[in-house]
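Record type: monomer structure entry
Structure origin: computed from sequence
Chain ID: A
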Amino acid sequence: MALKDLIASKSALTEEAIETLIEDYIRYDVEEKEITLLPAATALSSKQKVLVYLVALQGWPIVAKGEDVPPTAAKPAEIGERVGIHGGTLRPLLKDLKDRHLIGWKGGMYLVRAASLADIKKEMDGTASAKKPPRPRRKQPSAEHPERAAKIDPKLKRKSSGGKSGNLAEKFNSWIAEGFFKEPRTLSAVQDRFHEQGDILPQSSVPWFLLTAVRAKPPRLARKKADIAGKRVWVYKNP
C-alpha cells in the first residue's frame, strides 16, 4: 500500500467522523458561509455545543468548494455568539477543553484536529474518562482580614491586628457589657468604634455583630428605626 493511499483513507475517515459528530445538530449555509445550530442542539451541554461548532468548522473545506472557504478556527467571541454562551462561562470552558487536548489554540483562535475527533466523540457520548484538574485550595482568611474570616465561618475568626482582648466578637461583646450601647448607636458609629481600636472593617461586615446580638436568646441588643440627620436608620441599644 502506497503512502498516498494512507493519506486518502485518512481524509475519508475524517469526513465521516465529522459527519457523525455534527449531523444531528448543525446545517451549513454555503451561500452565506454560516453554520446554524438545529433545535436538537439545545439538549447539549455548553461544552458539547462548543465541540460541535468547532468540529463543524472543519467541514468547510469539504462543503464549500472553491477558493472562498471560511476559516476552520474561531475566536472566543465568535464561538460564544454562535453557540449562545457568554464570555464568563466560555473562557474557563475553552481552557478546560484545551488543557485536555480536545481542542487546540493558534493565533488567538481555537480549532479541533483530526487526531482529536475520536476523543471528542467520547465526550459527546458521555464516555470520556479524563480527570478534571484539581480545584485550587481556597486560602484561609488571614489575621489581616478578620472580617472575611467571620463571614466565611465564625470559627475562623482571628485575633485582630490591634486587639489584645481576643477576637472581634469578644471585643464587640465587651462593648455591650461596658455600656457602649446605653445610648442608641448607628451602624456607622459601631464601625467607627472598630476603626478607633485599629480594626479596619468595611461597613458591610458590621451588621453580622449587631444582628447576632439582636437575635441572641435572650437578646443582648434591641434595635429600632430613628431619625438621624434627616434619614430613617436602624439604631441599636441595650434592651
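Annotation 1: The chain has two domains: 8-125, 146-237.
Annotation 2: Residues 144 and 161 are 7 Å apart (CA to CA).
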